[in-house]
Amino acid sequence: MKKRKTRKRRVKSLGIYSHILIGFVLSFFVTSCSEEGEKVKDFGEVVPRSTKTTKIFTPTKSKVDSVKIKFYEKINHLSIDSVVGISKSQLPDRFNPVKKLKETLYFGKDSLQFCEWKYKDTNNLKQALYNLMDCFESPCKPIKMFESANISKSFFSILCSEKSLILLKSSSDIKLKEWLNFLDKEKGYKSFQLIISQLKNGKTKWFYSKNTKLTPKTK
User: Fold this and answer.
1) Which of 29, 59, 149, 208 is the most buried (most CB within 10 A)?
2) Residue 93 φ/ψ, nearest 5 degrees
3) Alpha-carbon gap, residue 200 to 121, rounded angstroms
């Protein structure tokens, strides 16, 4: 009888201790959760959202851009917004030009490519010209000598002096005579032995020039 009573007391004691332990664990868990919640809340308060609006700055034109724009605006009909260099390789680049200038002039919704290659001798110049004529557009479309044909959907002019090759290409009218005046006054081109010119969706025409005066060129 005594042993049974002792066992009952032990079981009772264990039950009480178990309840106490469970209660302690639960209270610790609840406290931890509430503290974690407070931490998250406090973090939001420590790092408040900025009320400032982000300003977007547009880059200003560099001195080089301004000089180039001023230079090309000597062509009367152009009001240029920007000038960007052309890095893409072109056929005349392959024939060792001693100097080259390749730029795109942007004005309004239009643009114009101005490319100039200078060569050491006439052999390199001829190779560059004939290769450009053999494969003018992409895909290649040949320009046959003295042929009147539609080659491009754009306006273009190819000008060839003794050792220089110039390409003008645009979606808008190039106004070749104004370019001849510009090339004469600003770059010293007094004459071109060959000029191939085509209006948009028109046909190629062949000229030569002296002192900015265009004369039709025949075989």
Assistant:
1) 208
2) -65, -25
3) 32
Give the integer Cα–Cα distance in Å for 36 and 65: 58
CA distances, 39 to each of 29, 32, 42, 43, 44 (Å): 15, 10, 5, 6, 9
State how many domains the chain has.
2
Domain end call among 56, 79, 103: 56
Considering the domain architecture, whether residues 32 and 120 belong to the same structural domain is answered as: no
Question: Do 80 and 135 share a domain, yes or no?
Answer: yes
Cα distance between residue 65 and residue 84, in whole Å: 8
Tell me the residue range of the domain where 34 lies: 1-56
Class of residue 200 by CB neighbours under 10 A (exposed 0-12, middle 13-18, buried 19+): middle
| Each residue's pLDDT tens digit, 155-205 | 999 999 999 999 999 999 999 999 999 999 999 999 999 999 999 889 999
Contacts of 32 (CB under 8 A, 6+ apart): none
Average pLDDT of 94-117? 96
- Find residue 194's DSSP bridge partners: 160
Dihedral sign from CA coordinates of 71, 72, 74, 78: negative
- The reported pTM is 0.71
Residues 156, 168 contacting (CB under 8 angstroms): yes
